[in-house]
Write a structure and sequence with these properties.
heterodimer, A: 59% helix, B: mainly alpha, Rossmann fold, 3 domains, 6-stranded mixed β-sheet, two-stranded antiparallel ribbon, 34 helices, binds guanosine-5'-triphosphate, binds magnesium ion
């Protein structure tokens, strides 16, 4: 595995972690639009 | 927003503000009794997709919709239903606080024309707020079918508010309602509702109170609607008394002195009686019912469905039917999607990436990570949507309230009442709305206990796990096996409820009062819209965090770099550490353990991770189909799936297929699990800790981590014990190991 590979891999892992952070932590996941529970007020 | 405007004296001009009428956004609160069709009305007017259902208490928080009508901007505010402005439960408080403190420009009071008297009881109180009111006489179609004649003109005259007959489901009367609303909003001073007379004694006391209150607390008269506040003070409404926190109540005692002498101590009942007689007097004047009333279909059905002995068996049978239909309808489409993700998608991804010079490992990441992981979940989209379709049907039909009624006696055994069963039923779609729906329960203790039990209800996200295992191990009894898991969830909820009642939550359940709405046939359009609303968050999950986890899992399966066996990867090693915990339950493998760990984020991920772990080694195919062949095959197999679904639904014989559609994942599972251990695994997935989103919802709803942690702990312990009992018990009974 070369340097370029390592960089791509790091970017991908970073991106995946960011998605987790943005959707799960910041947005507290999607609770579904039904049931009057939507997080966006 | 117009929220900061102060209340003015009812006799003053009532002008709203100097802003030009055209530019201003008109805020219209939509208020009324539960189940009167408020959300349906807003959906019909503004094209929103607010949750509707045929039971009381669907909307639990305020929702807004902004739209244009006749060149004007209107903000409609959907409020939770309430029977009066003396709220009991949390969602009623939301409605009451909005009406009293936020001062909308106009209130559309949605009234169920088939239940006029009960609905007018609230109307009488809404009219006291000193805000212009337009009444939407909704569900007018059903009233007409019953032969009711309602004299709208007479009602307008008696109440001093505009009355417009509407049918939200048939979309009639909506333009007229909006026209009227705009007219009233533009000329509020001509349209102040009439002051209804509560009878001489009350009115005299009220006048006296008005004077003394104005001198004692002049500031407070500005921040509340005056007449409403005076009447609430006379009732000594606990909510208002707490809000006002008055230090000197002498003036109140003086005002009420005569009233008490003439009518007794309980002023609250006197006021309620006065309102009831206003409502019933009005109803008598304006409503003409036909003399002879045929037995209605609702009563006929209820005779059977609510029967003491048949009620619960019918509920169980209805659930079984629901799974049978779900499964029969969706299985062929699931298999079709599976054949796509296993074959063409992976081929296309390689064909796209390789010429771009992408390193080999990225091709593997896409194929064995993303497509295997997300794909294993996407395969279950048809099942989930079919399930949501039938749940939406149940919600719209009016059966939800019946199920709650039928379960009332069982629920009383655990110190709850039947109403708590509705959040639990909603949990079958997704646990999170179920947790929020506990707001409709009046007692805080009931709320917490119900929210702790909701995650035991098997949500849509667990369905993929069941379907994978059931189609591998129990292909002939699939719906029955899945049904047994759902029933187990309910039974264990009752058991845990009993234990909680003996330990954490002592006390008796209060009386159960819940209205049983008439049965209604939901329209196909509304079924589709709300199925989509329920189902789309599973797609959202697949596209966001399931996607992200599938990438991370791929890396964990391939690190340290160049690892030979997945068992030696980081994920394999972590799984191997935890695996012994699951040994007594028959699935002590690192594969099962690491899937369960990643499944904490969302339960579908259990399947996604297994899809990645068991992704087949790339095999050299003798002949790679061309793109055209692939596309043709996809089209043909889709047609075959449609015909198979239709045939199964119609009970026509379906030709046995050779097991060519058996996915790689199923094949692998057959080699690792036995039917018994697979059942124990499913039981574990059903019960072990709720997903992170449900945990976050509990935290948000109760404002503390305490109950989320209690839920997490007890569920995991319960899951372990239950799976152990299933596996070891099954072995003792000779059901194989
Ligand atoms: N026949 C008929 N049914 C209606 C009409 N409006 C609403 N419904 C039905 O009444 C039921 C209740 O509708 P919702 O819009 O959820 O009622 P809601 O007032 O928002 O109820 P809560 O949120 O519980 O306060 C649903 O089954 C609707 O299909 C109507 O005009 N005619
Ligand atoms: Mg509603």
């Amino acid at each position: 595995m070369g340097i370029a590979d390592a960089i791509i891999a790091a970017l991908l892992v970073g991106g995946a972690c960011y998605i987790l952070y943005a959707t799960l932590w910041k947005k507290k996941g999607c609770c579904g639009c039904e049931g009057g529970s939507c997080c966006k007020k | 927003m117009s929220t900061q405007l102060k209340y003015k004296d009812e006799e003053s001009d009532g002008e709203i503000s100097g802003r030009s009428a055209e530019a201003r956004v008109i805020t219209v609160a939509v208020a009324g009794n539960p189940n009167s069709g408020k959300s349906t009305l807003i959906n019909a007017i503004a094209g929103t997709r607010l949750h509707v259902g045929n039971w009381a208490g669907v909307t639990v928080e305020k929702k807004e919709a902004l739209f244009d009508f006749g060149g004007r901007k209107i903000r409609l505010v959907d409020l939770p239903g309430t029977y009066s402005l003396s709220p009991y439960s949390q969602e009623e408080i939301v409605a009451r606080d909005y009406l009293v403190h936020e001062r909308p420009d106009l209130i559309i009071n949605v009234v169920d024309a088939t239940n006029l008297e009960r609905n007018l009881y609230l109307t009488v109180q809404i009219m006291e707020l000193g805000i212009p009111v337009v009444m939407a006489l909704n569900i007018y179609d059903e009233a007409q079918e019953k032969g009711y004649r309602i004299d709208g003109k007479a009602m307008e005259e008696m109440l001093g508010i505009a009355v417009v007959p509407t049918s939200a489901t048939r979309k009639t009367g909506l333009d007229q309602l909006l026209d009227t609303a705009l007219r009233v909003a533009d000329a509020p001073k001509q349209r102040v509702p009439k002051k209804l007379n509560y009878g001489e004694d009350i009115e005299v006391a009220c006048d006296y109170l008005a004077k003394s209150f104005r001198t004692s607390y002049p500031a407070l008269t500005d921040s509340y609607p005056q007449r409403w506040l005076l009447l609430k003070l006379m009732e000594q409404d606990s909510h208002v008394m707490r809000e006002l926190d008055l230090d000197d109540l002498d003036f109140l005692d003086q005002a009420l002195h005569h009233l008490r002498k003439a009518h007794g101590e309980d002023i609250e009942s006197i006021m309620a009686d006065a309102r009831y007689s206003l409502a019933s007097g009005l109803t008598r004047e304006v409503l003409h019912k036909p003399e002879l009333r045929p037995t209605e279909i609702t009563e006929k059905i209820d005779k059977i469905v609510l029967n003491r002995f048949l009620g619960i068996p019918i509920f169980m049978a209805a659930m079984w039917l629901l799974f049978k239909l779900t499964f029969d309808l969706s299985a062929p489409f699931g298999a079709w999607l599976g054949s796509m993700t296993d074959g063409p998608f992976k081929r296309w991804a390689s064909a796209l990436l390789t010429p771009l010079g992408a390193p080999d490992w990225t091709v593997s990441l896409v194929n064995d990570g993303v497509i295997a992981g997300v794909g294993s979940v996407i395969v279950f989209v048809p099942v989930i949507f079919a399930m949501m379709f039938f749940i939406t049907f149940l919600e719209g039909s009016g059966y939800m309230a019946r199920a709650a009624f039928v379960m009332d006696r069982t629920m009383h055994a655990i110190g709850l009442h039947g109403k708590s069963f509705i959040p639990m039923l909603l949990g079958f779609g997704c646990n999170v709305p179920g947790i929020y729906a506990t707001r409709t329960l009046e007692n805080p203790k009931d709320k917490v206990l119900t929210a702790l039990l909701v995650p035991l209800m098997s949500c849509g996200a667990r369905l993929p796990v069941y379907v994978v295992f059931v189609s591998a191990f129990f292909p002939n009894n699939s719906s029955t096996v899945i049904w047994s898991l759902y029933v187990m969830g309910i039974l264990l909820a009752v058991l845990m409820g009993l234990i909680f009642k003996k330990t954490l939550f002592r006390g008796e359940a209060p009386m159960f009062i819940m209205e049983l709405p008439p049965y209604r046939m939901p329209s196909l359009h509304s079924l589709c819209v709300h199925t989509w609303e329920k189902g789309k968050h599973f797609l959202y999950k697949a596209g966001t965090y399931i996607f992200a986890v599938s990438i991370l899992v791929w890396f964990l399966l391939n690190l340290p770099w160049g690892v030979e066996h997945k068992r030696d990867s980081y994920l394999g090693q972590a799984g191997a550490v935890v695996a012994p915990v699951f040994q007594p339950m028959g699935f002590g493998t690192w594969e099962a353990a690491s899937s369960l760990i990643s499944g904490v984020i969302a339960k579908e991920i259990v399947v996604g991770t297994m899809g990645e772990i068991y992704a087949p080694k790339k095999e050299e195919q003798a002949e790679v189909p061309t793109l055209q062949e692939d596309l043709k095959e996809i089209g043909v197999s889709f047609g075959a799936a449609c015909s198979k679904a239709v045939k199964t639904l119609l009970y026509l014989p379906v030709p046995e297929e050779k097991e060519k559609d058996r996915s790689a994942l199923k094949q692998a599972l057959l080699g690792v699990f036995t039917p018994l251990s697979s059942y124990a695994f499913m039981v574990f997935v059903l019960l072990y800790m709720p997903c992170v989103v449900a945990i976050a919802a509990m935290r948000q709803e109760f404002g503390t981590w305490k109950w989320a942690v209690v839920g997490l702990g007890y569920q995991t312990a319960l899951a372990w014990c239950a799976a152990l009992i299933v596996y070891q018990g099954g072995r003792v009974l000779g059901l194989g190991g």
